[in-house]
TrEMBL record:
This is Guanidinium exporter. Keywords: Cell membrane, Membrane, Transmembrane, Transmembrane helix, Transport. It is found in: Cell membrane. The chain crosses the membrane at residues 33-50, 57-78, 84-100. It is a multi-pass membrane protein. It comes from the Bacteria. PANTHER family: GUANIDINIUM EXPORTER, SMR FAMILY PROTON-DEPENDENT DRUG EFFLUX TRANSPORTER SUGE. Belongs to the drug/metabolite transporter (DMT) superfamily. Small multidrug resistance (SMR) (TC 2.A.7.1) family. Gdx/SugE subfamily. InterPro entries: EmrE-like, Small_drug/metabolite_transptr, Small_multidrug_res.
Amino acid sequence: MPWIYLLLAGILETGWAIGLKYTEGFTKLTPSLLTVMCIIASIGLLGLALRDLPVGTAYAVWTGLGTAGAVILGMVLFAEPPTITRLASIGLILAGVAGLKMSS
């Protein structure tokens, strides 16, 4: 169950990272509220995962999933360039996340 919490926390981290763009500096109410809700839920789920997982592993996986998700959605939603370097870097992040999962 802690890995499911951590996966959901990483997805929500991606959500709030992308949500920050839509808040326009927290000047738009609905995107701001949704972003804050994602932040709270993401950190709450990370806290639940930390009951059973090592903090270093959980934090690295959480940020890795959030980072990879934000980069991918940035390319999809905001037309950020999908360069070979970016794609390879996402692959390295996901390989690191998988390696940490296998080591726990």
